[in-house]
Amino acid sequence: MKISLRLVSCAVGFAALALTGALAQSPESPEAFSFQFVSQFDYPGTGNQTRPQKINTTNDIAGLFVDTSGASFGFTRFSNGSFSRPIADPNAATNFTEGRGINDSRLVCGDYTDSAGAFEGFFFSHGTFTNYDIEPTFTIVLGVNNAADFVGSVIPSSGIQSGFLSIGGNVTEFTVPNATATLDYQLNTTNQSCGYYIGSDGLTHGYWRASNGTIHAPIDPVGSTGTILFGNNDRNFIVGRYSDSAGATHGILFMPKSNRFLQYDFPGATFTSLNGINRGNTICGRYTDPSTGIDHGIIVQLVRTAAGGVTLPLAPSSAPAAVVPQRPVQIAPAY
Question: Which domains does the chain possess?
């Protein structure tokens, strides 16, 4: 049975855009940190694409894997290294279920496609699925915190794909100004959230949203041809990835207090993505093996160090491009 949760209060609006400028270095500057590789892992089975998404305080990881037939399923990787059985929403009609977020009670959130090809959200806990939608044609749930508040993306009747937050049962939909699509990926204890949007230039850009609704955007490292931010922790350390003009994709950590990025690349790979970070600064993500094209999960630890890592400054904001009216489009979430 599909349970469709429709929340009573829905505040829809455009949050103010706060363009971030260069700030003085703080004690949390990227120069004080570097990455330490912990381990690589794969969902059991030959040829599976393993794509971790979020990590909780006890290092349980939620994600998705794609098998050799192209079917997609969610999973939980427990802190002891064991895996759950494939998570498949019973209403998924096309072998397409994605695990997207997890909190400390192991409540997993995600999305699936129904018989009409529409994206729907779900929650999974102790063997029980609860399906969730705001709009029946497109609702995805991308992150959940320990208060069971959550975020995602929805296409409302206006037709402009929006991010949303559900806090205490109250839903707020928002868009980054001039964006053609906005996706909200994770929120922390103080309801700061982060994600990405499609700008009027047709490129992806990162943003983070303060608990008072102020949107800080664009968040792009210098040299980026496309930035996606996936997760933040309670210190609002934000992880994601960006692509450069040479076609390589790099994992990144962004620290709003210093407005700089720390870059991480898995050795030998041209695609690395950092997707989730927990309170202890343990990060989950993935890289693509260039010789096989297979995605592998990774765990990386952010550590304090005098040497520091590869740092990048925040790209300066340019004048907003003129908004060209477009037909509404559906942007499937990145992973």
Answer: 9-313 (2.120.10.30)
